[in-house]
Sequence to fold (701 residues):
Amino acid sequence: MDEEALSGNQREFAGIRNTVVAWLCVAYTVFHLLVMNVYPLETWAYRLTHVGGGLFLGFLLFGAATMDAKGRSTRSPLAMALLAIAAAAVLYGAVGVAAIWINGTVLGQTLPPEWAMASFGLPLAAGTALAIAHSWAFPHIDRVRFAPADLVLAVSAIAFTTYLIFFARQLQLRAGMPMALPGDMWAAIAGVLLIIELTRRLAGLALVVIAGVFVAYAFLGPWLPGIFEHRGYDAKRFFSYIFTDNGILGAPVAISSTYIVLFVVFAAFLQATRVGEYFVNLAFAAAGHRRGGPAKVAIFASGLMGMINGTSAGNVVATGSLTIPMMKRVGYKPQTAASVEAAASTGGQIMPPIMGAGAFIMAEITGIPYTEIAIAAIIPAILYFASVYFMVDFEAKKLGMRGMREDELPNLRLMLRQVYLFVPIIILIVALFQGYSVIRAGTLATISAAVVSWISPNKMGLRQILHAFEIAAYMSIQIIVVCAAAGVIVGVISLTGVGARFSVLLLDVAAHSHLLALVFAMFISILLGMGMPTTAAYAVAASVVAPGLVQLGIEPLTAHFFVFYFAVVSAITPPVALASYAAAGISGANAMSTSVASFRIGIAAFIVPFMFFYNSALLMEGGWFEIGRALITATFGVYLLSAGVLGWFARSSAPVLVRLLLVAAALLTIEGGLWTDLAGIALAVIAMLIQRKRAPALAAA
Fold:
């Protein structure tokens, strides 16, 4: 998400409000950079401050309603009464936390007395719930001023964060064991309510519904059938457990508070120096003149931008606002233009070396070195983008598309003179492969982006650097809140053991067929990922599905790549396809039709994970000859698959028989064995002969 991609409910402040919010955003970004590079903070306090600060800023920046919302008057007696009760309750709770803090310091206490937070914690949680209800019932349409209910929620974010940091350390030490106090539960309830509400505002209802189902599952376990049954948990145990490193403060937030924030800052610096725009212009200059040029530009530009952007939908908006109108200009239908951009932007999440922070998340979860993950991702990314390119090229041939005229394109020579703008990315890659930590490498790349700007037309001064920090905070908040929401789901999985039950289920299915087990794992990963950004989708799917695949005997790297790919492509999988919906919004196409078209264009992404399961050479495992042969035959396979899916082969449209032969040939060459490769080539030759035989008849017609 960038400045253009911010949700429609972002407020547009002016005057003193704008200045205050801007400086708060700058302070939030600088805090993270200082902790990561200069003054380390205790993990518990850092992650809570990361989440609480994100919630605080989120409620100031993003209202509950869009500009065209039709809300009831916020000045009605009912609205004023509800708001007054909510504000009083939250302020009572916040003052209570402060009073306990002062009292505890004077008396040398490390924990507040139990009666205190039982008294102050309940109003805090109740007031938070009432403020959320107020924002639903009486949406604040004025985007220039702060909504009073949102100010209440911002105060609640500070209060619950302060309490958990200073007075709930037993949660950190005992992972939510029964020694937790009533106040811990109430503070955690307030925190969960804030996370869910901000997730609803920024990421939509899909993730909220999924999180709600998992929370309900934690309480309803004794009444559920089969593998879903568990003993159930009371509210005190559940809500105190959920704010530990097994839940909200676990892997997703660990990643968002370090790698994701760091690379969002890097992306903001690239945006401030207009390097992202340079990527797009270079792609236009190099490929815009070719048949269907803007669509091919979208592939390259979206791939480059997508690897440093943490969300597929955010990448769609960042590059699609330029590429989609260009595609429509040369004759692409709005639906086709949107689907190409959605598929290409989604592919950016699987492009090394950054993979939208996916490589770092996988390294954190699996313990596999980052460099090994980045190298393993090279061939699958090539296959995905090759497939999308083939689909776009065939579509252009089928529709008789033209390229862009020379006067419509940037000057290639001028673009090549500015190739030094790639230096920050080169420094990042070199530093990572030289063994520098991810944080050090990302920091060096960010600094180099500012330095490189001094020899470019877009020089960064202090004002531009501060603006980049401000942009980074805006861009971070959505990812932070969805990571926290994903942490709720991961916490339920950890507490109830449902992930282990899914592993047992996968093993039972695998007893009949490994392929069937993989298909089952694919559907679960896509289902869990629908409506979520990549980071959250992978974190959840890795907790539920990946352990079962490892128990099947699959290598951890292969298992996690399998899950990761399907978590990524959930962004273009109907019925909930965030990247496709974002692209449809830009192009003016029907959202559901666009998601179906995106699914078709990105079809290779649904095949590639099975490819590297059956042929580990595609993950760079094996000798160079074996890896090279696998790459060549697999590329030929995705070419045939693209031709079969789109129905264009050997310079003419293909009938059903030829399309079936091409798909069968593709699957055989993708499998990776010598005999299957030969069989696939034979089927491709038969398809070619049929097409050539049809050519004279088509010409005569």
Residues 3-244 form one domain. The longest helix spans residues 462-496. Residues 306 and 315 are 6 Å apart (CA to CA). The radius of gyration is 26 Å.
